[in-house]
């Protein structure tokens, strides 16, 4: 199809034209993927965010009002998906390597190592003391980096149960680590 983005979007919205959607996908997927991968540094996560953008575009096609260029809309949508992904997957264990890559102006002291070891011990004990289902949800989410939906599917429980278990687990950790601030 040699139609403009706005013409394709109009066909998609008014006629539920899947071919118009496919054309828009083929026009933008590669640039969006490169942008997502540049931020996430993970092929699967970049593809997931990209898929979420296009799935949302298709599902919300009747209600979407795009005031700017379609590419600007898609990139802003992708930006928020990537930020949401990072927020949902941000955890100490996953990003520890990133922080350790920064040069330290002063070498850590023995006290620093003891302090970190003590904190890690408190975290490990808190996780070990969690009820089994809470521990399983927490580890799948934070250690393995699964989303709420993926965790719910894997454990065959509702997404709300996953959210509740994560909230309780994080509250326990926050309470136990309160003395270390």
Please give a structural write-up.
With 181 residues, this protein is mainly alpha-helical. The chain has 2 domains: 5-89, Orthogonal Bundle (Rna Polymerase Sigma Factor, Chain: A); 105-180, Winged helix-like DNA-binding domain superfamily/Winged helix DNA-binding domain (Arc Repressor Mutant, subunit A, Orthogonal Bundle). The chain is built from 9 helices and no strands. Helix 6 crosses helix 9. The longest helix is centred in the N-terminal third of the chain and has 23 residues, at 18-40. The radius of gyration is 22 Å and the shape is elongated. The N and C termini lie far apart (59 Å). Mean pLDDT is 83; it is low at 101-108.
Topology:
Layout: H1 5-15, H2 18-40, H3 43-59, H4 70-89, H5 92-100, H6 110-129, H7 132-143, H8 148-155, H9 159-177
Helix pairs in contact: 1-2, 2-3, 2-4, 3-4, 6-9, 7-9, 8-9
CATH superfamily membership of the largest domain, which one?
Answer: RNA polymerase sigma factor, region 2, helix turn helix motif
Provide the CATH top-level class of the largest domain: Mainly Alpha
Q: What percent of residues adopt helix (DSSP H or I)?
A: over 70%
CATH architecture of the largest domain: Orthogonal Bundle
Distance between the termini: 59 Å
List the quaternary state of the chains: single chain
Query: What low-confidence regions span 5 or more consecutive residues with pLDDT below 50?
Result: 101-108
Strands, total number: 0
| Count of helical stretches | 9
Mean of residue pLDDT? 83
SS strand fraction: under 5%
CATH topology call of the largest domain: Rna Polymerase Sigma Factor, Chain: A
Q: Structural class from helices and strands? A: mainly alpha
Helix-strand pattern: HHHHHHHHH
Characterize the biggest β-sheet: none
């Amino acid at each position: 199809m040699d139609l403009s983005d706005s013409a394709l979007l109009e066909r998609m919205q008014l006629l539920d034209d899947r071919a118009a959607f496919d054309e828009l996908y083929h026009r933008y997927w590669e640039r969006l993927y490169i942008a997502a991968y540049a931020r996430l540094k993970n092929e699967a996560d970049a593809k997931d965010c990209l898929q979420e953008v296009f799935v949302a575009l298709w599902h919300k096609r009747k209600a979407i009002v795009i005031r700017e260029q379609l590419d600007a809309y898609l990139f802003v949508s992708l930006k928020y998906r990537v930020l949401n992904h990072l927020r949902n997957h941000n955890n100490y264990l996953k990003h520890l390597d990133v922080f350790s890559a920064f040069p330290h102006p002063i070498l850590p002291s023995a006290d620093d190592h003891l302090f970190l070891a003590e904190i890690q011990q408190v975290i490990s004990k808190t996780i070990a003391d969690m009820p089994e289902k809470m521990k399983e949800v927490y580890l799948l989410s934070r250690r393995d980096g699964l989303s709420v939906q993926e965790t719910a599917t894997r454990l065959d429980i509702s997404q709300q149960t996953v959210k509740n278990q994560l909230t309780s687990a994080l509250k326990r950790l926050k309470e136990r680590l309160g003395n270390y601030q």
